[in-house]
Amino acid sequence: MVYLPLIVGFSLVAFGYSQDLELQHTLTTSDNYKDTTETVKVTAFLDLLQTSTNPSEKTTIEESSVVERALAWLVTQREADWGWRNDTPKVLTALQLWPREEAHLMAEVLEMQLSLKQMEVEIVVLLWRHHEIPITPPKLAQYCLALSGACQDPRQFHGHDLIATLLHHEPVRDIEFAYASLAACTARSHVRKKQIRRLLDIANTAKDHNIDTVAMTILALRCIVKDHRHRNLQHSLRRPCISLARQQQQDGGFGNLYNTALTLQALQDMNEINNHWNRSAAKSYIESRQDPDGAFTDPNLTAEIVFALSDRGLSHIRNLDCGKYDNDMDNHVEIDGLSKSLYPHGNDSDPRNVTVTYTLWVGANVTENATVTLTAPRNTSFYHVMQAAMDADPRFTFEASEWPNGHYVHTLAGYKEEPMGYHYWLLYRLPEVPDPLAPPANQLVAPVGVDDLLIEEGDHYLFWYKKL
Ligand SMILES: *[C@@H]1O[C@H](CO)[C@@H](O)[C@H](O)[C@H]1NC(C)=O
Ligand SMILES: *[C@@H]1O[C@H](CO)[C@@H](O)[C@H](O)[C@H]1NC(C)=O
Ligand SMILES: *[C@@H]1O[C@H](CO)[C@@H](O)[C@H](O)[C@H]1NC(C)=O
Ligand SMILES: *[C@@H]1O[C@H](CO)[C@@H](O)[C@H](O)[C@H]1NC(C)=O
Ligand SMILES: *[C@@H]1O[C@H](CO)[C@@H](O)[C@H](O)[C@H]1NC(C)=O
Ligand SMILES: *[C@@H]1O[C@H](CO)[C@@H](O)[C@H](O)[C@H]1NC(C)=O
Ligand SMILES: *[C@@H]1O[C@H](CO)[C@@H](O)[C@H](O)[C@H]1NC(C)=O
């Protein structure tokens, strides 16, 4: 047992070494691109790992071996032109994100550079032929993500801004829109308020969308909230994440391998919702479906599963330390905020009191209601308005938990959120007093938490308790 770390350490060195050997071998026998010796060595490496019998280490070793075998298979699928037909960007992204610590070393390996050059050729051809064959957003998004993964800026692809091309036509399909947004955010590009609202709208109506669409939307939003200016949107992610987690099926999966892989990525590191689903069952669902040769059907799906199982999902690319970004201060995400008002108000530098209304509704059919009118200095947070309302009227009594990014209101007027029954309090900011006969649409859900919502003259707030 004591020797186990040594064995693992040694075998990792051996693995790295065998890749160097393989590289030279490939270079000296240029007529044989598809090399089989590497597979043999990877297998030997896995055998070595499997000889260890420490039960506490076993799970991690087995998990990594599934990924290692998938990656080894992907390498065998490389074409003579160093690409992977339609899947070059996706496979390259998977290879670049793994192994974790050596991601950048990988990029320096000559083979990877040849594949990257092949990918650049593919992009140039795509741009060159776009009059004959229109560029589809998912295709371009894939290339943008792969460039970001390789520490290249897709906004400066040989003088061409691929992100601008990507965002030029907003995709109609929600999943394509979410994927394009993820690619733009990953490239640290300008994410418009309008875009974020559409994503929040999809997330807030998760039940009306396919699992893959919701998972992709959450991936995009989780990338967006990494920007310190949008951190407060974190609040809006919890409910859609829970809703997604609860769609897990008896077999541990989410319907199919693709959906399950995307969901694992979307919910990566979300430990606070662990009791809504079983992450290891989802992993087992995928692992038990690996082909004997290491593949998961095709390179496209295999790459997606590598993202999911290696704990290095697509959302991780933004965090790659490419030596360019010191921190998230240095980016191009829009500054003017979601915390600003949604519609035009008076003179911003005018210091005065403003009057707002604050309404509570209970139930989808509004079986209980209460409204209060309050005056407070401009720029007060809605959280302070809630406190003033509670002092003035006991019906507005509330309880909130404190999170690093602010308060999360879970109980109002004696009604506590019940995630198990999908009962939640949703906060809306409206241009007029809400009317139960014309209830507000989802896009009016406040885009930020109660602390960041600053009141303006003419605002009407509604907290609505309902089943999602
Ligand atoms: C990869 O798989 C996804 C999901 O099935 C599909 O939408 C996409 O078109 C595939 N990509 C390619 C290049 O085949
Ligand atoms: C989660 O799934 C795994 C494997 O399917 C199972 O062994 C475990 O008991 C499950 N955990 C819970 C809390 O249900
Ligand atoms: C806003 O108010 C300030 C001070 O009251 C005034 O100087 C400024 O001209 C006003 N701006 C507009 C656009 O009305
Ligand atoms: C409102 O608050 C913001 C940020 O806290 C500040 O920049 C702005 O000047 C304030 N406006 C007024 C009218 O106090
Ligand atoms: C704003 O309201 C407070 C009391 O709520 C009052 O003391 C203050 O004079 C008001 N300020 C203005 C400019 O009306
Ligand atoms: C709400 O009202 C509709 C019809 O007005 C009714 O069908 C539905 O059952 C009601 N829902 C609840 C939760 O009372
Ligand atoms: C609010 O509830 C009261 C009864 O408490 C009812 O008379 C009133 O019509 C309700 N108002 C709205 C807007 O639903």
Total strand count, please?
7
Ligands bound to this protein structure? 2-acetamido-2-deoxy-beta-D-glucopyranose
Beta-strand content: 5-15%
What is the CATH topology assignment of the largest domain?
Glycosyltransferase
Secondary-structure element pattern, one letter each: HHHHHHHHHHHHHHHEEHEEEEE
Query: Helicity level, as a percent range?
Result: 40-55%
CATH architecture of the largest domain: Alpha/alpha barrel
Largest sheet: number of strands, sense, barrel closure: 4 strands, mixed
Secondary-structure-based class equals alpha+beta
Unreliable runs, pLDDT <50, ≥5 residues? Answer: 1-61, 100-107, 324-347
Instruction: Provide mean pLDDT, rounded.
Output: 79
Shape: elongated
Distance between the termini: 51 Å
How many DSSP H or I helices? Answer: 16
Give the class-level CATH name of the largest domain. Answer: Mainly Alpha
Count of all domains: 2
Binding site for cyanocob(III)alamin: 212, 256, 408-409, 425-427
InterPro entries: Cbl-bd_prot, Cobalamin_Transport, Terpenoid_cyclase/PrenylTrfase
Disulfide bonds: 185-223
Signal peptide: 1-18
What's this entry about, in short?
The protein has 468 residues and is of the alpha+beta class.
Notes on the structure:
- With 468 residues, the chain is of the alpha+beta class.
- It folds into two domains: 4-328, Glycosyltransferase (Alpha/alpha barrel), CATH 1.50.10.20; 353-467, Ferric Hydroxamate Uptake Protein, Chain A, domain 1 (Beta Complex).
- Helices cover 44% and strands 11% of the residues.
- The chain has 16 helices and seven strands.
- The chain has helices spanning 4-28, 37-50, 55-76, 88-96, 103-108, 110-128, 137-149, 162-168, 174-186, 193-204, 211-224, 234-245, 257-266, 279-287, 299-309, 382-392, and strands at 353-362, 368-377, 398-403, 406-412, 415-416, 423-430, 460-467.
- Strands 2-1-7-6 form a four-stranded mixed beta sheet, covered by helices on one side.
- Helix 9 packs parallel to helix 11 (211-224).
- The longest helix has 25 residues, at 4-28.
- It starts with a helix and ends with a strand.
- The model is unreliable at 1-61, 100-107 and 324-347 (pLDDT under 50).
- One 2-acetamido-2-deoxy-beta-D-glucopyranose binds next to loops.
